[in-house]
Specification:
It is a single chain. The protein is α+β, with helices and mostly antiparallel strands. The protein folds into 2 domains: 199 residues, Cytochrome Bc1 Complex, Chain A, domain 1, CATH 3.30.830.10; 180 residues, Metalloenzyme, LuxS/M16 peptidase-like (Cytochrome Bc1 Complex, Chain A, domain 1, 2-Layer Sandwich), CATH 3.30.830. It contains 14 helices and 11 strands. Helix 1 packs across helix 6 and helix 9 packs antiparallel against helix 10.
Amino acid sequence: MTNLDRTLAPDFKAIDNITLIRPEHKKLNNGCNIYCFNSGDQELVRIEWIFGNQRFNADKPLLNVAVNTMLTEGTTTLTASQIADKVDFYGAFLQVDYGYDHSQVTLYSLNKHLQHTLPVIKDIITNSIFPENELETFIRNQQQKLQVSMQKNDFVARRIFNKAIYGDTLYGLGAEPDTYKTLYRQDMLPFFKQMYQPANCTILIAGKIEPAILGLITDTFNKDWTNSGLVVDTAQPQIKVAEEHFYFNEKPDALQSAIRMGIPAINRSHPDFSALQVLNTILGGYFGSRLMANIREDKGYTYGIGSGMSSLKHGGALFIATEVGADVCKAAVIEIEKELNRLQTELVPDDELSLVRNFLLGSLLGSLENVFSHADKFKNLYFAGLDYDYYDRYVEVVKTITPAQLQHLAGKYLNFDQFYKVIVGKY
């Protein structure tokens, strides 16, 4: 048996390239695109039905989220409990997810049970009826959840920030309890029929996909699933950012203050995006970041602080978020400004940049642990209109970006005076 010297760090090996599984593509006669990631030994598949969200309507702002969330609440043939029982009986897992740009239905199922689970999904996306009693329950539950969430400073800060940088769009929507009173079943039914049609659907399949399995899926969703003839408008209103850049929501009894600040920024399709991801990581994108080192480790103002980037179809943002002791809120903002300015005036040391390079490349490699994660990477590309060379460029940028280039980016994107700043609590 070999004795390991645990005082020595293991050898580090640089990552030369990342190999991604590429899907096979098939288009059904009804216009639905199918992408297959065939890999793995287990008789299991994950199938996602992804639909583009319809254009935001300020008079009926909750239709997208309500229709998606209530897909499993009953169809013309099955009640909500029957849907749940059928899925559970075959050891499958079903969930519906709403996002800013897309809504989706996801099924995890053993291959041998797909003949029984697929008809349930087809019934959901073709025959959902949004029963009046279930809608009343949904509205009541959502109102109660919202009232609870509105007591949380970080939730309020995020709503105010999104409204400021995204305006009257789906991205900036901050529902109030009374907003749910705009939901009516007679609006949801035609909205559902228009949105959940094959021409507005992309199916992603990942797992062990034998020819018979693919045939079963394509037959199920090619037969008797037709387009309504109604055009699905997935464009969104033009984003108009707020003129006001500072928002203070005072809560006199607050023990902590929520801070959220940032700017409208680029999305994944912009040439600067990969480089800005490196800069964001240095600033606040991992546990060893500058914001964490300063405001948590050195000053002790918070348990956690970070920065992030959101990439949406029609916009994006770079933001900083934390909750700090109410008595040190102003001091924390000052330190955040210092870190932003330091990136603009000082070159990032080579050893710090090397650490961040290794972190980012290792994170990318570690995120590809199974076929499902390869499918997730493809989604990022597909819905942004990008090809696989995006990840080649990303790896190249991470490996070669210089301190001078980072300093230039900081001057371009990290101007504190241009940031939208939201404080909820005491200041």
